[in-house]
Amino acid sequence: MPETENDAPAYRDAGLLERLRAAGITALDEGDLEIPSYLPHHTVPPLRDWPGPRIVWDMLADRLQPWLAEPGHTPLLIGCDCSVAVGTAQALTPVSDEVLVLYIDGDFDDAPPDPGVYQSAAAMAVWLLTNPSPFWTGPPLRPSQVTVPGWSKPSRCVQGRVNSMSLADIRRKGAQRLHERSWTPFQVRRILVHFDIDVLADAELPAAYFPHTEGLTLQQIAEVLGMVLTDARVRIVEISEYSALRDKGCQWMNKLMETFVGRVAGVIPYLW
After folding, report:
1. Do residues 98 and 142 lie in contact, with contact meaning Cβ atoms separated by under 8 Å?
2. What count of other Cβ atoms lies within 10 Å of the Cβ of residue 137?
């Protein structure tokens, strides 16, 4: 959104493109999604700044679809909040039954709309993905098509809960169990990997918008990403909720890049 913090320059300043290329990946910076400065923002519950988010999701889906038509090309989205998953899922869902969303997050982000509460699209992202509503054009996914691993704050949705694997589960059972629970129930052809950095403990990476005291370590997220990103069906990867204002010297961005680039090296050949 135009008035929110723009985190993408921090990734560029940390040399993301150069790091990817040094790891043997053909990488291209396609630039920012140009969002109109006159985007409408209505302060009416239940969805903050409506219809601004819907316009952004539609623009993003239109931008991504030509790249998704190219075999082997994997768009990487940076500098975004969690609501971006709605637009990226929309880009992937012409054949919606074959899509899996792996929503790696410290929160469930499945708050249902409440006419008495004015809340962000990011807090509702998983609910929006899995429920029919007037808020976006994509066909809703079945709850079995979405898995939320790493959460420390539980679901806020009473009905239609998605698959999940809590922070405690990952610590106890390991990343391999995530694979067994996530994409064995149905035929998957396209996987969207959403990585919110607040799944990491604040002590490990204190640069998230909404830091969590409890969370994964960098080593644990490296294991999760290493297992997930080896799957050739991954079609979109997005990294969300990094706050440059919490990381003046880019110390934590460098740690994040080391962890991420180390997982995609030799696995994903093209990143845009």
Report:
1. no
2. 12
The whole-model pTM stands at 0.93
Distance, CA of 249 to CA of 26 (rounded, Å): 28
3 part of a folded domain: no
Residue where the block lists tokens 């589960």? 169
Contact between 214 and 204 under an 8 Å Cβ cutoff? The reply is no
Q: Is residue 247 part of a domain?
A: yes
Question: Are residues 256 and 197 in contact, defined by beta-carbon separation less than 8 angstroms?
Answer: yes
Query: What digits encode the pLDDT tens for the residues 78-118?
Result: 989 999 999 999 999 865 568 999 999 999 999 999 999 99
| 8 Å CB contact between 92 and 235 | yes
CB 108 within 8 A of CB 149: no
In a domain, 1, yes or no: no
Domain count, the chain: 1
Is 218 within the bounds of a domain? Answer: yes
